TrEMBL record:
Residues 1-27 form the signal peptide. This is ABC transporter, substrate-binding protein, aliphatic sulfonates family. It is found in: Periplasm. Coiled coil: none annotated. Residues 41-250 form the SsuA/THI5-like domain. PROSITE patterns: PROKAR_LIPOPROTEIN. Its main location: periplasm. Belongs to the bacterial solute-binding protein SsuA/TauA family.
Amino acid sequence: MKKLIKMTLIVALLPLILLGCNQSSTSSIKLTEVTRSLFYAPQYVALEKGYFEEEGLDVELQTTWGGDKTMTALLSDGADIALVGSETSIYVYAQNSKDPVINFAQLTQTDGTFLVAKEPKPDFVWEDLKGSTFLGQRKGGMPQMVGEFVLKNHGIDPKNDLDLQQNIDFANIPGAFVSGDAEYVQLFEPTASTFEKEGNGHIVASFGEESGNVPYTVFMTKQSYLDENEEEVQKFTRAVYKAQQWVEENSAEEIASVIKPYFEDTELDLLASSIERYKGQQSFATNPILDKEEWDNLKAIMEEAGELPADIPYEDLVNTTIAEEIIND
């Protein structure tokens, strides 16, 4: 009788025991992204295909809309990991931060913006920009710095050859272009293709193709978080790598179907064509390693824009150990 009671209790408690085991094996991570962008397709693949869950991670994603807000969330512990441009880690370091922000997994390796003209430009050349009104991005942010870098490479002085407007918040730039007088604008996908389809603009060039490889958007965290949660960061990076490989191996249409929940207002065919454009210019990194050549290119772009606060060594803010171990597993 006693054995029967014990067995009954064990059976009754088994779900609770299993639940407790599952809870203890799952780690929660607060992840913030600088914007919602098709450019970050591998991140959404990792979430939708359950790669983080396979690693025992419960990842909560929030969008903070802007580099400053994203970094504030990370530094104030409102986020554990941030997806944002590497330039932000340099800005923090240059302020003598006692807890530097470390780049540990690269997601995109080119600029993700496209030059969009209000009127059709079938024979566009960069010289056409001279004397035009150009709706630019936030001063000191990667889109604007890369944009200026490319323009200068084509003999255009952004400050003197353009009417450069930089007084619009990132999230409001598309609407301001449609309603305003600007003749050109930098836009990410799928907004650029949406504008083209709706007749609000015409894609005439790619800044990503023009600027070379840079650590454009990278997963980063504070050194203290990395020290205290190295295993979680390893699992996170492994999930990202799985997603990067899946994106590399699958078609734009398949990728679009997986990440559609993050872009409910965009038609599937438009998502697919935008993804194909990014794949075609190799914007999605195929592994999480941020190499020194990319870091040096970033610093050159920042210096050209007059935004490099200090020559920060690669080794100070980039950790490739975790990514290398995962790739070599």
